[in-house]
Amino acid sequence: MKKMNIRSVLPKPNTSLSAKSHKKYPYLLRGLKVSRSNEVWATDITYIPMQAGFMYLTVVMDWYSRYVLSWRISNSMDKRFCLEALDEAWKWGQPEIFNSDQGAQFTSLEFTSELLNRGIKISMDGKGRALDNVFVERLWWSVKYEHIYLRAYENGFRFTQRT
Predict the structure, then answer these.
(1) Does residue 68 carry a pLDDT above 90?
(2) Topology of domain 18-155, per CATH?
(3) Ranges for the Integrase catalytic domain (predicted)?
């Protein structure tokens, strides 16, 4: 009999669920030629499969340099770990434009207020348009295929090398 694991039973999580009551912002990066650091920062969340469920990883990245300014990992997709990553990223400066998807973590009043209070323009990907945030999506591909999928994660602390 084939061994069942949680990933074969549970669907992959949707990390971009929006909240209908949250304000959505237009996508500001179409046709924009980003020419320096701190012009545009971007963020996103991806899931990391575990033996029993998922962990969630978020980053704040500078679009020009592709430098990961900060990151956090969590066992839930609440906004707290996204706000912590944003708070850590401030040590690198601040962008003119901040881009994210329309997920509830990034459209929350707490998250958008952090940006608006600093005079930062908010840009949000179109619904279902993962390529609007192509540089973070490319990072997720690298992280997953060059690290995560090569290991069998038991939980948020331990993994075993796949053979």
Answers:
(1) yes
(2) Nucleotidyltransferase; domain 5 (3.30.420)
(3) 22-163
